Amino acid sequence: MNDLPAVKLKNRKGIIGFNPDVRLQKREVVAQALWQCLVENDIEAFKEILRSHLEVTNKDELAQKAGIPRRTLFRMLSPEGNPTLENLGKIIHHLCA
Description:
The protein has helices spanning 20-24, 27-39, 43-56, 59-66, 70-77, 85-96.
């Protein structure tokens, strides 16, 4: 990478920064992404998106409002986790409500 020439932009007009944390805080965006993961049977992506959402939101609040014990929530998101359909449904329901 050090041997690449530096490129100077002529004008930064119209260039805006992108912060994924902002999108990950929006429940409707996360709910759509999680739903798409379920449609595509991609449980690893589901867990990664939910994990990322929880990094920028209140984990205890989600667990409480979804009716899932906090410990269960963290266990189901671990690499070895195998969330039940019931718990997945509770999370999706909370995010869509």
